[in-house]
């Protein structure tokens, strides 16, 4: 499965980054207070891109979602537009295009990365979840279906973990009535099968 392959590569990349920079709690942006550490964020992002053999990288978005690799027409698992859904990296779109880092992989997958502290801004949702960074993996880029929990999955780098974990702590919204942000955890629990 494409998601498993990309996630496995992210885990390997994370281990390499830990070896070079120390564990995430030692990274300079873990303070969340100043905006002086974005250069470190960018260096870490570039390392992810290198380790994942990305064919293209973008250091910031510009609100044009197709440009950043995630479709503006993306929907939640329950069929509602992802637009305007809180509880992601910003208080707007689930995958806000501004101030993100994007990697386009050879496989066609897109990985978009958000840091809790970036370019003078703070993604308070990530801080509230005690995450240093968040990842949105679209396993087939802007191609359909562009549905959270079907071809778009959420992960994060959480305080207390040295590795990337599913974005949600439970699987409560991974159903036909839910948003689908917890489907990354559900699919791993179910041995990479979409039992929902």
Structure description:
The chain has 196 residues and is of the alpha+beta class. It contains five helices and eight strands, in the order H-H-E-H-E-E-E-E-H-E-E-E-H. The protein starts with a helix and ends in a 7-residue tail after the last helix. Strand 2 and strand 3 (110-115) form a beta hairpin. It has a six-stranded antiparallel sheet. The protein has helices spanning 2-21, 38-51, 65-68, 124-128, 183-189, and strands at residues 56-58, 101-104, 110-115, 117-118, 121-122, 131-138, 152-158, 164-166. The longest helix is centred in the first third of the chain and has 20 residues, at 2-21. The model is unreliable at 30-35 and 88-93 (pLDDT under 50). The radius of gyration is 15 Å and the shape is globular.
What are the key terms here?
196 residues, alpha+beta, 6-stranded antiparallel beta sheet, two-stranded antiparallel ribbon, 8 strands
- Percentage of residues in helical conformation: 25-40%
Shape descriptor? globular
Q: How do the helices and strands follow one another from N- to C-terminus? A: HHEHEEEEHEEEH
Give the low-confidence spans. 30-35, 88-93
Number of discrete helical segments: 5
Secondary-structure-derived class? alpha+beta
Q: What's the mean pLDDT score?
A: 82
Q: Radius of gyration from the CA trace?
A: 15 Å
First and last CA, distance: 16 Å
DSSP summary, beta strand count: 8
Largest sheet: 6 strands, antiparallel
- Share of residues in strands: 15-25%
Strands of the biggest beta sheet: in what spatial order?
Answer: 1-2-3-6-7-8
Oligomeric description of these chains: single chain
